[in-house]
Design goal:
- There is one protein chain.
- By secondary structure, the chain is an alpha/beta fold.
- The chain has one domain: Phosphoglycerate mutase-like (Rossmann fold), CATH 3.40.50.
- It has eight helices and six strands, in the order E-H-H-E-H-E-H-H-H-E-H-H-E-E.
- It has a six-stranded mixed sheet.
- It is globular and about 50 Å long.
- It is an enzyme of class 5 (isomerase).
Length: 210
C-alpha cells in the first residue's frame, strides 16, 4: 500500500456511450461505448499515467460502459489485472419510465418543464425512477464504508462510474447543496483527482482535462 500521506481518490465518468450519442435516457440500461467513448477512456488513462498515478484498487458499477472505461484506463496505465470491485451502488441514476426514451420524445410526451424538473431537480424522481437524492442515498454509504477507508489508509483509489452517481459523491466531497450539484456538468472521460486529509476532508482537487 502507498504511504499514508498519499490518500488519493480518482473519479472518472465513463466515456461517451451509444445512448449518450443518441440523446437517450440511459439509467440502468447497458449500452456500450462509442468510438469516441473509447478514445476518451484511452485519453483519461494517458493523463493519469502522465500524472504518475499508480492505483491500489479500483471500484466501478455493474454496467458495462463504466467497466470498459476502467479496463481501457488500466490498460493505458499498465495496470491490467488490478483488484476491481463492481457494485450496483455505483450505478447510474435509475431513470425509471424515461429509460430508453429520446429526450426530445420525453419532452413531447410530458412537456419540457416536467422533464426539466425530473432531470435537474435534486429530489423529484421520474416515474418509477430515482432522484439525485435517491442515488446519493445508495452511493454515500457505499463510499463511506467501502471506498473511503481504502483512501484514508493511504491508498490511491480509482472509481469509474456515471454522471449522477459521481455527482452524488462530488456533492459530498465538495460540500455542495442539492441546487448547486444539479447544475454541475460532468464531462465524460475526464479524471478528477482528490487528495484527502487524514480526517477525510478534501486537501486538493485537480481536473485532468485536455
Amino acid at each position: 500500500m502507498s504511504s499514508t500521506s498519499n490518500r488519493t481518490l480518482v473519479l472518472v465518468r465513463h466515456g461517451q456511450s451509444e445512448w449518450n450519442l443518441k440523446n437517450l435516457f440511459t439509467g440502468w440500461r447497458d449500452p456500450g461505448l462509442t468510438e469516441q467513448g473509447v478514445a476518451e477512456a484511452n485519453a483519461a488513462g494517458d493523463r493519469l499515467k502522465a500524472a504518475g498515478l499508480h492505483f491500489d484498487i479500483a471500484f466501478t458499477s455493474v454496467l458495462s460502459r463504466a467497466q470498459r472505461t476502467l479496463d481501457l484506463i488500466l490498460d493505458r496505465t499498465g495496470q491490467t489485472g488490478l483488484e476491481t470491485i463492481r457494485d450496483q451502488a455505483l450505478n447510474e441514476r435509475d431513470y425509471g419510465d424515461l429509460s430508453g426514451l429520446n429526450k426530445d420524445d420525453a419532452r413531447a410526451k410530458w412537456g419540457e418543464e416536467q422533464v426539466h424538473v425530473w432531470r435537474r431537480s435534486y429530489d423529484v424522481p421520474p416515474p418509477g425512477g430515482e432522484s439525485l437524492k435517491d442515488t446519493g442515498a445508495r452511493v454515500w454509504p457505499y463510499y463511506i464504508h467501502t471506498i473511503q477507508p481504502r483512501v484514508l489508509a493511504g491508498g490511491t483509489v480509482i472509481v469509474a462510474a456515471h454522471g449522477n452517481s459521481l455527482r452524488a459523491l462530488i456533492m459530498a466531497l465538495d460540500g455542495l447543496t442539492g441546487e448547486e450539484i444539479v447544475s454541475r456538468e460532468l464531462a465524460t472521460g475526464v479524471p478528477i483527482v482528490y487528495r484527502l486529509n487524514a480526517d477525510s476532508t478534501v486537501a486538493s482537487k485537480d481536473v485532468l482535462d485536455a
